[in-house]
Amino acid sequence: MRTLWRFGYSARLLKTNRFRTAASNTSFPAVWMLLAQYSGRIPGLFVVVKKNRFFTMPETVEDKANLELYSPHPEVRGMTLLNREAFKRTVVVPVLKVKKEIVNTLLKSLKHTVLQRPGLKRVVEDLEDENSRLVILDPHKIPEFSLGESEQEVLKQLNVRPEVSKYNLELTYENFKSEEILRAVLPEGQEVTSGFSRVGHIAHLNLRDHQLPYRHLIGQVIIDKNPGITCAVNKTNIIDSTYRNFQMEVLAGESNLVTKVKENNIAYELDFSKVYWNPRLSTEHGRIVELLKPGDVLFDVFAGIGPFAIPAAKKKCHVFANDLNPESYNWLLHNCKLNKVDNKIKAFNMDGRDFLLGPVREELSKELPLLKEQQKTSFHIVMNLPALAIEFLDVFRHLLAGEPCSTAGLPTVHCYGFSKHDDPAKDIQERAEASLGTSLDGRCSTYLVRNVAPNKEMLCISFQVPADVLYKRPCPDEAKPASKRLCTSKDFSEEKLLS
């Protein structure tokens, strides 16, 4: 009889039972029964009755520790500086001894029963028999180390003895998932957040106050467990600045915040510390661009680095893109060149209101009078500044002069806003109506973009600007009712001079 023993392991570990024996085996020497009973606490210990034969453990009852099989060592609780060595832990798992030539067949047949853990081998060498291998089973699928009828039937067909043995498996930091690590480290009962927004190589977290003492450890765990992430940052204030960016702290990894992202098959480059970028809006960007047709005109009032403007230009639309943030404007120009649409986008670095009163009004005044009824060119105005955009809608009141030249050519506005109201769609519509000074009943649609926070929604309201809002009609004595001809750009120029 031989036993495998790793010397130097503290004997005090024998003081705590790992398993309770549910059936006695009087023929088995008491000392070896004791070792078998406590083997779960001694790494590398495996009990053998005879050479080339494993002792089949009597029926056992899982204790609380085994129910928490995949929890790191309890001593990591409260850790603020990551110590990967402290996560080492030895657990007892069931194994089957199998001839090596049928291992692959067995793995396929018992694929739902075999242990599946990050970085763990499902098959290990049998130190007592070079012709056999040990297949590790999931203890949660083998309750009390007892095989079910279906598993026994598989083993019978493969001529494998249905004897489950105990094996001491060492788990390390690499074998635990990020959620398991953080749940073990943070104070018990507190919320564990392992989610983040990925922006290129950057993981953007939004930690709660109770998580801040552990922020550097959390950042390092996120980097360790997510390939390609080399920097973790935490937002330190809300997006309330003029330029829509926010202060952030680098929690772990490199401090390079210039990154590359890809959205809807288009590449962008940006400095995440200086411009606004939200990967959760990719679906919304695609939805709006899908509404556009080649030849349409898009005015992007708060363009950022171009997630609406650039794909629209690639769709052969005429694009006017604006952003107040000089950094966003520069990255917009950069990404236009990167995507080879710099000759299709007119970029501006202005306040949104000035952009609407200037380039937008000028372009609409020039192009709308030239539209003919049969022409299908559409004008779209995107206003993606949810915190403030609705307040800009009053700009459309009498933005243009004269009679509307074509009802079909009236521009369509896509305006974004936040709402904490019980009926967010109704709230957004009422606020838009207040800014426009008219009712939008039956003339608008609202779309739920995403849930931003508990009881806070982001929505998009879309509508054609009503003609009686957009146009300032001439006074009666200035009107020319007999004239039915289409307005021309010359008329607008003359009126501008007179005014």
Describe the structure.
The chain is of the alpha/beta class. 24% of the residues lie in helices and 24% in strands. It has helices at residues 30-38, 64-67, 103-109, 149-157, 178-185, 215-225, 282-291, 309-314, 326-338, 352-367, 424-436, 467-470, 489-498; strands at residues 3-4, 20-21, 46-50, 53-54, 60-61, 89-99, 123-125, 132-136, 164-171, 197-199, 202-205, 231-235, 248-253, 258-263, 266-271, 297-300, 318-322, 345-348, 379-383, 400-401, 412-419, 444-453, 456-464, 471-472. The strands form seven sheets. It has a seven-stranded mixed β-sheet, sandwiched between helices. Strands 7-8-6-9 form a four-stranded antiparallel β-sheet, covered by helices on one side. A four-stranded mixed β-sheet has the order 10-11-12-13. The longest helix is centred in the C-terminal third of the chain and has 16 residues, at 352-367. The N and C termini lie far apart (108 Å). Residues 1-67 and 482-499 have low confidence and may be disordered.
What's the arrangement of secondary structure elements?
Elements: E1 3-4, E2 20-21, H1 30-38, E3 46-50, E4 53-54, E5 60-61, H2 64-67, E6 89-99, H3 103-109, E7 123-125, E8 132-136, H4 149-157, E9 164-171, H5 178-185, E10 197-199, E11 202-205, H6 215-225, E12 231-235, E13 248-253, E14 258-263, E15 266-271, H7 282-291, E16 297-300, H8 309-314, E17 318-322, H9 326-338, E18 345-348, H10 352-367, E19 379-383, E20 400-401, E21 412-419, H11 424-436, E22 444-453, E23 456-464, H12 467-470, E24 471-472, H13 489-498
Parallel strand pairs: 11-12, 16-17, 16-19, 17-18, 19-21, 20-24
Antiparallel strand pairs: 1-3, 2-5, 3-4, 6-8, 6-9, 7-8, 10-11, 12-13, 14-15, 21-23, 22-23
